[in-house]
């Protein structure tokens, strides 16, 4: 019974941080969907199925933390470019602070666990 | 849709996605399909081998899984089912139905898993009978307040307070009545709020 619980916890953790990873990728300027998905998919242990990132992008759009524009691509179908909105920037800034605290605490606790 | 330039395996994948997405709102399905199609046309170069195409599709994951992720997010389950609302309403007003209604509400309250034992005790004792208790109290307290009126032949009415209830006791009576009315209402609101909090799945 323990294994499925651990799996759920990890996948929930992933789901929770993924959207902020998307926002972080947009910090330095706009990117189009495939670029975002590639960058997240290439990060180790972050994404198991790239396809589910598209629904995530859609949700961020509806929540107003990102804005999009379609542009022609030099090859193939038009691309949807994403950029941070002020709301998105604020959400990202808030997360960076929280994450740093969270990571510090968990690391400290996990470290203790190993020592004992 | 440039299905002619797309890899056959990718076309098959898109078709599966389209079929799996039938239950999505049309706009969201169209957007999702456009995005995935863009992904496939970037990730699978023209003339890619089947193995290359399959690698891309594997990474993308099941079409069904993508659709499941796109499905409107389910709200945290609202624990206030019909049973809970009935319990709250019966506890509040059930007393008017020969008091039986209140007991029915009590049974529903205690048999529901949406509340903790503490909430159930609160629901039971604040106030037994619900608003009907306030109504009964009004009648009982109102009794000595009844004014004795003597009609005079002239038509004028002369009324005096019977029972000699003082201002202080009538203020107390009013305060008690207000409490008896407000307490069950507060309890009802409290129970409605608590039923919403996460407890055992109904």
Order of helices and strands of chain A: HEHHEEH
Low-pLDDT ranges of chain B: none
- Rounded mean pLDDT of chain B is 79
Largest β sheet strand count, sense and barrel closure of chain A: 3 strands, antiparallel
Query: Biggest sheet of chain B, strands in spatial order?
Result: 1-2
- Derived from helix and strand composition plus strand pairing, the structural class of chain B reads mainly alpha
Tell me, what's the shape of chain A? globular
Assembly category? heterodimer
Q: Main beta sheet of chain B: strand number and arrangement?
A: 2 strands, antiparallel
**How many helices of chain A in DSSP terms?**
4
Q: Which range best describes the helical content of chain B: under 10%, 10-25%, 25-40%, 40-55%, 55-70% or over 70%?
A: 55-70%
Order of helices and strands of chain B: HHHHHHHHEEH
Question: Helix/strand/pairing class of chain A, anyone?
Answer: alpha+beta
The strand order across the widest sheet of chain A is 1-3-2
Number of strands of chain A: 3
Query: Number of helical segments of chain B?
Result: 9
Identify the overall geometry of chain B: rod-shaped
Give the amount of beta strand of chain B, in percent. Answer: under 5%
**Mean pLDDT across all amino acids of chain A:** 88
Quote the distance from N terminus to C terminus of chain B.
Answer: 46 Å
Low-confidence segments of chain A, given as residue ranges, are: none
Outline the structure in words.
The complex is a heterodimer of chains A (116) and B (202). By secondary structure, chain A is an alpha+beta fold. Chain A is 65% helix and 12% strand. Chain A has a 3-stranded antiparallel sheet. In chain A, strand 2 and strand 3 form a beta hairpin. The longest helix of chain A is centred in the C-terminal third of the chain and has 30 residues. Chain B has a two-stranded antiparallel sheet. Chain B is rod-shaped and about 100 Å long. Chain B is mainly alpha-helical and 202 residues long. Chain B contains 9 helices and 2 strands, in the order H-H-H-H-H-H-H-H-E-E-H. In chain B, a hairpin with a 5-residue loop joins strand 1 and strand 2. Chain B starts with 7 loop residues before the first helix and ends in a 6-residue tail after the last helix. Chains A and B meet through helix 2 and helix 3 of A and helix 2 and helix 4 of B.
């Amino acid at each position: 019974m323990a294994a499925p619980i651990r799996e759920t916890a990890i996948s929930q953790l992933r789901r929770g941080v993924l959207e902020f990873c998307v926002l972080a990728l947009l910090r330095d300027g706009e990117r189009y969907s495939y670029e975002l998905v590639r960058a997240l998919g290439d990060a180790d242990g972050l994404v198991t199925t790239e396809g589910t990132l598209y629904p995530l992008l859609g949700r961020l759009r509806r929540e107003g933390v990102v804005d999009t524009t379609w542009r022609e691509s030099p090859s193939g179908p038009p691309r949807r470019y994403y950029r941070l909105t002020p709301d998105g920037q604020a959400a990202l800034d808030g997360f960076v602070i929280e994450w740093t605290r969270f990571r510090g605490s968990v690391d400290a606790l996990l470290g203790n666990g190993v020592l004992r | 849709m440039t299905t002619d330039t797309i890899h056959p395996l990718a076309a098959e994948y898109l078709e599966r996605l389209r079929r799996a997405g039938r239950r999505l709102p049309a706009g969201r399905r169209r957007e999702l399909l456009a995005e995935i199609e863009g992904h496939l046309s970037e990730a699978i170069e023209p003339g890619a081998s089947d193995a290359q195409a399959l690698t891309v599709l594997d990474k993308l994951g099941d079409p069904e899984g993508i659709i499941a992720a796109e499905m409107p997010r389910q709200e945290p389950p609202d624990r206030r089912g019909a049973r809970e609302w009935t319990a709250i309403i019966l506890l509040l007003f059930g007393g008017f139905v020969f008091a039986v209604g209140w007991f029915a509400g009590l049974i529903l309250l205690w048999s529901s898993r949406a509340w903790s034992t503490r909430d159930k005790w609160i629901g039971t004792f604040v106030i037994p009978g619900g608003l009907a208790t306030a109504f009964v109290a009004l009648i009982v307290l109102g009794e000595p307040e009844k004014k004795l009126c003597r009609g005079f032949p002239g038509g004028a009415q002369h009324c005096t307070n019977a029972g000699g209830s003082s201002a202080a006791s009538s203020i107390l009576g009013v305060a008690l009545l207000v409490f008896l009315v407000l307490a069950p209402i507060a309890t009802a609101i409290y129970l409605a709020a608590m039923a919403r909090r996460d407890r055992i799945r109904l």
